[in-house]
Amino acid sequence: MAAKKGKPQIKTIWGLASELGFDKEMLYTILERETGKDSMRACTGTELNRVIFALGKMKDSYNDSRNGMASKEQIWKIRQLEEALGWKDNPARLNGFMKKYYQTERVEWLKGWQAHKLIESLKKMLQKQSEVM
Q: Which residues are registered as beta bridge partners of 69?
C-alpha cells in the first residue's frame, strides 16, 4: 500500500525533473541530497514532498532568472509576428530591425519593455502590410 501512496508524487518528481532538463543521474543526486536515500520507492511521502519542494524551488529560481528580460510569452509572440510578416526564412531581417530600433541583436536579449514595444511595432507593420494587399 505504501508504494501506491508515493506513485503520484514520483510522477510529479519525474515531471519536474523533465521540465528542468535533468537526467536520471542528476535527479537521483538531488533525491539523495534531500532524503539520504537512493530509491524513490524507499522514501516516505514526507521525503518525496521534500524532493518535490526542492525541485519546485529550482524551477522557480530558473524562471526568475529572466527578471526584467522578455518573457517566454513575449518571445513566442515576436516569433509568431515574425512568421506572419514572412520574415521566418530570413532571421537577419528581424535581427536588423531590432538592432536599428532597440540596439539589441537577439530576441532573447530584449528587456521586457523592449519586447513590448517590438511586439507593438511588428503588429503595426503587419496591419500596414495587410492594408496594402
A: 111
Say how far apart CA 37 and CA 42 lie, in whole Å: 7
3-state secondary structure the chain: CHHHHHHHHHHHHHHHHHHHCCCHHHHHHHHHHHHCCCCCCCCCHHHHHHHHHHHHHHHHHHHHCCCCECCHHHHHHHHHHHHHCCCCCCHHHHHHHHHHHHCCCCHHHCEHHHHHHHHHHHHHHHHHHHHHC
CA–CA distance, 18 with 53 (Å, rounded to integer): 15
Task: Please give the grid coordinates belonging to residue 133.
Answer: 494587399
Q: What value, to the nearest 5°, has the Cα angle with vertex 15 and ends 28 and 69?
A: 105
- Give every residue of the chain whose pLDDT is below 70, as ranges: 1-6, 61-66, 133
| End-to-end C-alpha distance for the chain, whole angstroms | 67
Residues 6+ apart with CB under 8 A from 24: none
User: Does the predicted model carry a pTM greater than 0.85?
Assistant: no
